[in-house]
Amino acid sequence: MPQALLGTPLPLHKHILRNRIIMGSMHTGFEEHAEGNEHLAAFYQARAEGGVALIITGGISPNEAGAVTEGGAKLTTDDEVKWHRLITDKVHEHDTKICMQILHTGRYAMSRQPVAPSAIQAPINPARPKALSTEEVKQTVQDYIRCAQLAQQAGYDGVEVMGSEGYLINQFIAQRTNQRDDEYGGSLENRHRFATEIVHGIRQTCGDDFIIIFRISVLDLVEHGSTWEDNLQLIQRIEHAGASIFNTGIGWHEARIPTIATMVPRAAFSNFTAKLKQASHLPVIATNRINMPDVAEQLLQDGIADAVCLARPMLADAQWSNKALAKRPESINTCIGCNQACLDHIFAGKLTSCLVNPFACHELQLIQKPAKNSKRIAVIGAGPAGLACAKTAAERGHHVTLFDAQSQIGGQLNIAKTVPGKQEFNETLRYFAHELSQLKVDVRLNAWADAAQLQDFDEIVLASGIHPRQVNIEGIDHPKVLSYLQVLRDKAHVGNKVIIIGSGGIGFDVAEFLSHQGEDSSQSPTLFQQEWQIDASLEQAGGLKSIEPQLTPSVRDITICQRKSGVVGRNLGKTTGWIHRLSLKEKGVNMLGGVTYLKIDDAGLHVQIGDQIQVLAADHIIICAGQESNRDLQDALNTLNKPVHIIGGADVATELDAKRAILSGTEVALAL
């Protein structure tokens, strides 16, 4: 058995990292708040206490033009240094290093006038950027150097220079976005000049004991991006300029290929990190969909990387590092790659959190303290809301009994885990099962709780979930009609020609489930790269064989219908909805908007679209038209004259929402 490497120290310039686990950069939203440093200090301190060796902060701009939004986070003056000192001091209390990421967003800036190497508009930004003059480029280099110098004064052990994901440095490097004819454009050496001058200037100014991480885009995933031969020259130049270590960047934000969502296999891009490792004289960090210790350890054992970088997994579990190093993976609250409370929140202007861990980024708002009086608590329903409530209440010292009518815990999570690409929900169920066992929660399955059984409890939490909403269509009782529960949970037979009524997350999940055949690409990096036309050799510019994915066609003829006009599935998650829409489209799934449902009969589903009445032939019609709360027990509970708390779907039966369910269960448990 080879020696475990994850816990071994890593020499880094004149620093020693206590292990090989690095917390990656994530924007939280607190960076823009006057008192956000207090929240960030608590957030990062919890991860430092959790055993991580090095933390990389969310991106801080070197000037006003580079901020994510107008008025966004920057470090440009001595007056701003004090704001950061609280963060670095708290982290250093726990033998953890911390580096500030310097991020200039370039043409991605959500401002009235972004700047860029050339005036080429980004497809994800409505504003066309202004091309920087040569003097402005030189000043921006100095802004980076000044920002790093201020970071050093603020107590940071180093900086990460963000050179990937399609941000400003990446925009200078790639021909796609650099059409300059001065010393910063044209030849590859000139296009690399901006990055090398920044790294060299930081090293000269901040000294040899300052960590400089360079996040390099080894795989752009956009047309006219870098080739591997281009990257080889950039690696040499950045090494010579004085970097300490390379971090791996995968994909530009405008790329139409998923890179961190749950349908992406674990360590899906490790072969590209391996190429970087083979070419580099510096240590190399692996990133992207590394969420469990066995994956991380294998990357180190195989010599693919010298360290691993985990961002969202540190949201999901602040103690990830300690648990991994103690060989307790069963106790890790695993990141499922859903993006619902992290990236989706940021793109909507909200604060970051985590679906499976609502305490993330809310360490000063959600405070868990031992209960003053230990109570007997009954939780009815072992879905996500009930599980979160039972776990948190038991952690606080309450005696908890958890009832569920099904034979296993999980509720709607047991449906989600059956959908190809959503197998990570198994980890959430594993985590809750382990925690309930450790906390000695009395779990009673196949148990229909009634008022008589609940008389001896002090308080009752009703987490009885939802049931599918029935729609008012003539012929709804026809044998062709199935509910999504019959399909996903009960595995009812479904014919070859299928109509899905409803285009929310459930409708898309059913379509994904029914369209799938053969090997699941979310479990195979090789198949995933083949389907999304990723060039493993990196001979093609940007690492793309084609901009059109080649997904396995659907095994069934499927049509998704929605009443609203416009894009079908528009309300899916900001950062993952486009993936689901594109994936099903490439599989040949039809999508119809503006549909009025008339009736169902042997011929199929009769509809009106615009002024046209037509019949959509179908073997089966599957109803995915929302949910209603299960509150059958509520009236009986009210007769007990005990406090009754209603949470999750039993409280609000909107689109299946594990994020809201887990948060509501946690909040009620904290108040018991």
Automatic annotation (TrEMBL):
Keyword Flavoprotein set for record: yes
Pfam families cross-referenced by the UniProt entry: Oxidored_FMN, Pyr_redox_2
Record keywords: Flavoprotein, FMN, Iron, Iron-sulfur, Metal-binding, Oxidoreductase
PANTHER family to which the protein is assigned, alphabetical: 2,4-DIENOYL-COA REDUCTASE, 2,4-DIENOYL-COA REDUCTASE [(2E)-ENOYL-COA-PRODUCING]
Protein name: NADPH-dependent 2,4-dienoyl-CoA reductase
Entry annotated with the keyword Ligase: no
Matches recorded under CDD domains: DCR_FMN (cd02930)
Entry-linked InterPro entries: Aldolase_TIM, FAD/NAD-bd_sf, FAD/NAD-binding_dom, NADH:flavin_oxidoreductase, OxRdtase_FMN_N
Known cofactor(s): [4Fe-4S] cluster; FMN
The FAD/NAD(P)-binding domain, residue ranges: 376-636
Superkingdom, natural source: Bacteria
Organism: Vitreoscilla stercoraria
Record-annotated NADH:flavin oxidoreductase/NADH oxidase N-terminal domain positions: 8-329
Family statement: In the N-terminal section; belongs to the NADH:flavin oxidoreductase/NADH oxidase family.
Lineage, top ranks: Bacteria, Pseudomonadati, Pseudomonadota, Betaproteobacteria, Neisseriales
